[in-house]
User: What shape does this take?
Amino acid sequence: MTRTVSLAALSVLFLLAHPPLQAQAPAGDEELPVVHVLATGGTISNTEGDRLTGEDLVRSLPGVEDVARITVEQFSNVASGAISLSQWLAMERRIDELFQERPDLAGVVVTHGTDTMEETAYFLDLTLGHCRPVVVTGAMRRATALGADGPANLLNSIRLAVSEEAREIGVVVLMNDEVFPGREAVKVSTSRMHAFRAPGAGRFGVTDPDAVFLERTVPTRSCEAPSFDLSGVEELPRVELIYTALGADGALVRAAVEAGAEGIVMAAVGRGGTTPGQREALAEARENGVVVVLSSRTGEGRVPVARGEGETGALLGAGDLNPQKARILLMLALTRTDDPDELRTIFRTH
Ligand code: DAS
Assistant: This one.
């Protein structure tokens, strides 16, 4: 007689042998701190044609059981370009809930695609009202590639999250042994292992095999309250990002206004320049109540917040925030105010 074992029965047997990490009380040496891994996808999870789960990633880490007790949660499993703004809101709420409900939690590690990692890190930096470490990490090489960097990045992130130095570090990015503040981390290479930088500022610290070193101070956020409290916010205001290049007319600016944008961030040239056609359209946008912010496509340096008004058609400059980070700050600022002076203050202080 042939015996058939259903897939469901096999799954049950597998689960009995490997209980899901997120369903468990953190296992392991009770003296060790607890870290929660929130997996979202990205190259760190990629194999040929498939994606590993957060549990797979943690199980592959040699020696992790000597560093921390881990719980794992699969938040999503997508390329980071597919993470939606409503998922951002859900991610912030989930991490906030974890910190509120679990005083024992040393920190959270978010595994994330590197393409938009700098955006998620800044968003969380602005919206979480906690200082416990949230380490956002990923990989430049997929899990099955020769020299895959994901396991080292993940293990180093867990080491950072439990380290004494990082107790009040807040949101950071860790890639290739280097740590960057969530506000400053920028992806600067499509494919190199050292793909992250903090332009104009330098790294925050390093994870060496024997220890974690923080090498400079970073302006601290309040540990009591978030910079932007999103309770009650169900949707972020629409803010469009538009590039300046020679000969660009005002068509994209007008299309953004037509689509209902409450704000426009320009990836302007140099210290906030745009073309005559864009300037005209931006001035019209402002007359229609759209908030216009000038950032720079340059990659480093400031567009003074005081730049704006007059001929630029803009309200303010983004300081040292790159266009994609300026868009996040403007979205969050617009949940609170559209008053020009308050907006300028927000851009000067975040
Ligand atoms: N697949 C890309 C992403 O999800 C790249 C990466 O993860 O590094 O962002």
Remarks:
- Residues 1-19 have pLDDT under 50 and may be disordered.
- Residues 7-214 form a domain with the Rossmann fold fold (CATH 3.40.50.1170).
